[in-house]
Amino acid sequence: MIIYLTTYEFRQVPGLKHIYFVYQEYFICAISYNSVYYFLYIRCTGIIFLSINRCLVICGPTSIVTCWIQKAHTWQIVVVYWTVPTLISIFVLKDTDFYYDSLETMEVVVPRSVIMVGAICCFFLFQLLRNPCLAIDHRETCKKEETDHIINRGYTKKYKV
């Protein structure tokens, strides 16, 4: 987001405004626009990874996956944290068909298809990465219901009305 805000502020400066407009073909506009989606993917995957980690620690503290994550080195976590959203964002980062409308307004013109691809990729990213949390939560809910049923089976009394 800092990249977008910086380029946005720079395109308001009179001398830089002209340079931005004249050299549009060097992807200044595309980098500015795509950086928003790229860092959005990083934030979303980070939140999802944190949620998956918390689910695993709470629901399966002794599982192999939980132990592996807890014993992972910092560099391994950083590599996963940055690699996954980078690979996912390739679909969005390949679009470079952006331009500024005029020298006076310097508004970014984005084709509708590019906006749709970005929105759909965000939606599928969220759906794809939240499913492990739902699966873990569902499995633990089923285990709890079975345990409650076994514990309460001998103590349930039936009353006639």
TrEMBL record:
Transmembrane segments: 20-40, 46-68, 75-93, 113-129
Keyword Membrane: yes
Taxonomic lineage of the native organism: Eukaryota, Metazoa, Ecdysozoa, Nematoda, Chromadorea
Entry keyword set: Membrane, Transmembrane, Transmembrane helix
Source species: Caenorhabditis japonica
Source superkingdom: Eukaryota
Pfam families per record: 7TM_GPCR_Srv
Official protein name in the record: Serpentine receptor class gamma
Keyword Transmembrane helix (UniProt): yes
A GO cellular component annotation in the UniProt record: membrane
